[in-house]
Amino acid sequence: MIAFLTGLTVAYAIILILVLAVSLIAIAATLWRIGSSLAQIAQGVGLVERQTAPLAGHMAALNDGLAAVRATLHSATGHLAATDAQLAGVLGEPAELRVVSDVA
């Protein structure tokens, strides 16, 4: 009986080791594929960075132009609000001067 239980224990240990080995190999293969995918993503991001590098100088000019447009539109908003209040006064409506918040 002891020989049978010993043999059963050894067989169980061998099966356990084989299952653990297969599991670890599957995990290693999955991690390898993930690493390869991340390397391709990093390569793609580097390529995009190199291809968009010339835009840096143009973006500063674009931002400056948009800041000027923003200032002009903000000024126009103030003028339109004042005009609205004056027209309301001419028509006899209660004048409400709206203050437009400066959105950053």
Any overview of this molecule?
By secondary structure, the chain is mainly α. Helices cover 84% and strands 0% of the residues. It is built from two helices and no strands. It has helices at residues 2-52, 55-90. The mean pLDDT is 89.
Keywords:
about 100 residues; mainly alpha; 2 domains; elongated
Topology overview:
Elements (H helix, E strand, L loop, with lengths): L1 H51 L2 H36 L14
Helix coverage percent: over 70%
Residue-averaged pLDDT: 89
Domain module count: 2
The backbone outline, from C-alpha atoms, is elongated
Q: Hey, roughly how much beta strand do the residues contain?
A: under 5%
Total helices: the number is: 2
User: Structural class per helix/strand content?
Assistant: mainly alpha
Radius of gyration: 36 Å
Number of strands: 0
Largest sheet: none
Task: List unreliable stretches of 5+ residues.
Answer: none
Order of helices and strands: HH
The oligomeric state of the chains shown is single chain
* N-C termini distance: 84 Å
Task: Provide a concise account of the structure shown.
The protein is mostly helical and 104 residues long.
